[in-house]
Each structure stands twice: as C-alpha cells, then as structure tokens.
Amino acid sequence: MIVNFFMKKDFYELLGVSKNATKDEIKSAYRKSALKFHPDRNKAPDAEEKFKEINEAYEVLSNDQKKSAYDQFGHAAFDPSSGGMGGHTYSQQNGPFNFTYTQSGGNFGGADFDFGGFSNPFDIFEQFFGGSFSGQQSRAKRLETYKISLSFLEAVHGCQKEVSIGGKKKTIKIPAGVDDGQKIRFSEFILYIDVQPDKTFKREVNDVFINVNIKISQAIFGDTIEVPTLKDPLKVRIKPGTQPNTLIRLKGQGVRDVNGYGQGDFYIRLFVEIPTKLTSRQKDLLKQLDL
Predict the structure, then answer these.
(1) What confidence score (pLDDT) does residue 186 get?
(2) What is the structure's pLDDT at 103?
(3) How confident is the model at residue 78 (pLDDT cuts 50, 70, 90)?
(4) Is the pTM of this model over 0.85?
(5) Average pLDDT of the chain, as a whole number
(6) How many C-beta atoms surround the C-beta of residue 120 within 10 A?
(7) How far are the Cα atoms of 41, 124, 153 from residue 137, in angstroms, in the given order?
(8) Do domains 96-197 and 202-272 have the same CATH topology?
C-alpha cells in the first residue's frame, strides 16, 4: 500500500494545539481527544480511525526527537523515500515506533499478519486513563502478555516459533526487524520480545556494528579481509594507510525496519592491533622505519 504523506492531516491540527504548545498542553489536548474518540465510548464508524490518528500525532509531538524531526521535515521525516534526513528515515536514526499485529480467523499456523499502525493506541490509552470506562476495559487490557526469547539473528531475519498460549500450542510468525523490549499484539495475546545479545553483532536502532582487528601491516599497506555480515561472509578491501577506529559503511545492509521504513546500514569498525611482544629484529626494523 502506498501512503501519500502529503495527504496526511497535520499533527498539530489533529490535537488542536499550536506549534508552540507545551508538553502539558499537548498531553491535555490528547486526553481530551482520546476520550472523545476512543472506540469504547464512541461507536461512530470512523471513531477508531480518528483515535489512531490522534494517537499517532501524540506519539510524535510528545517526544522531543520525533517532534523536532516532524517540525523540520513534516510527515516526510517518516517517509523512507524522501531522503530528507541524510538518507535515513526517523525510524532508522532513532528507533522504530511500537507496532501491533492483527489477525483474522484465529488460526495462527501459517497465517498472514498485518500491521495495525505505528503503535497500539489502546496501550497508550491505558497509561492515561487506567483502561476502563464505567467498568468497560479496553481490548488491550483483556489480553494476556507472554514473553519469548529470540537470538539476535532470529530477530533480524524473522522466524516462526511454537508457543504455548493458555495450555495450547500455537505456531506464530515473528516479523523481521523486531527489537529487544518490543511488544507484538496478536488477536488473542500480547507477546513481549526478549532478544539475546550477540558476541559479534551490536545493534543500534536499525544499524549494525561489528569490530574487526587488523594488523599494523594491513593498515599500512592495505589488504582484503573477510568479515561476517547478517547474511553471508563478505570480502572487504582495506585501503593503504587505514587509521585505527576507521568505519566502513555498507549502506542498506543493516536491519530491515519492522514498520517497513527502509533498512539500516552495516558498519565495520577497524581496530589496529599493536603487538605486545616483538623480537629484537622487529624492534630494530621499526626503529629504522621511524614510524
């Protein structure tokens, strides 16, 4: 589905506040609008859609970094095709929004899942209002939360897992790009993601970093080395005169954004190994070189 970001409603207008509004004013406006359009209270056909729009606006304007990006670039700040943020979308630079899954039919095995928007508006609603009106609980409140542990690469590439929900085994699909601490909302439960750290790869939002040691001779004269990536090992050329802590960037080879906003980069950080034990001849040669 192609979204025209220029047709989206202005976030300030959605909440009825000015660009100079304080955080308290933004929060107050959100509470008022959320109360008006929350589906548990408002049964109008478009209430849920309006509530999601209000929630999306609040998610951005209540966060200093997201608000700054929006003030500068508008909706294009979150558009992967805009290129208005140095080739990175907001999600790639500062982390993905939370997200939800919805499913029909109740059959988890091999089912297709659809994203329900930037986040689960019902979760945010619970934070403000306790999750109930006149004894009616929000839909998210009724869902049990379960925890699942994933390896680093399982989270990066996505996978299928068999889980036990209410004593019943179900096969669920974990999307590529999920990160530690995120929650996936299925139709019958909420799944908390616990990603185990990896010895080789380090993730920062959707970018991935690895450290590679090279010899002094390789740094001086250059070389070709093989490094691990998220897929297959890759041969990388080391330029002559490479300095310690040099970063080699592989554009678009990082983690795919879980919300579909492009893909991060892969960085190779080069550390030059300084030998701790040298022979007398090696020491003499180095002195002659006067490096």
Answers:
(1) 82
(2) 34
(3) low
(4) no
(5) 76
(6) 25
(7) 11, 13, 37
(8) yes
Task: Report the pLDDT value the prediction gives residue 155, as an integer from 0 to 100.
Answer: 94
How distant, in Å, are the alpha carbons of 2, 47, 54, 74 from that of 12?
A: 23, 19, 10, 11
Q: Report, as an integer, the average pLDDT of 19-30.
A: 88
In the CATH scheme, what is the homologous superfamily, with its name and number, of domain 1-95?
DnaJ domain (1.10.287.110)
The domain locations on the chain are 1-95, 96-197, 202-272
Mean pLDDT, residues 94-119? 36
Say if residue 211's pLDDT is above 50. Answer: yes
User: Class assignment of domain 96-197?
Assistant: mainly beta
Look at residues 91, 71, 94 and name the one whose alpha carbon lies nearest to residue 79.
Answer: 91
Q: What span, in angstroms and rounded, lies between the C-alpha atoms of 229 and 50?
A: 42
Could you confirm whether domain 202-272 is CATH 2.60.260.20?
Answer: yes
**Rounded CA separation 23/19 (Å):** 11
How confident is the model at residue 152, as a pLDDT?
96
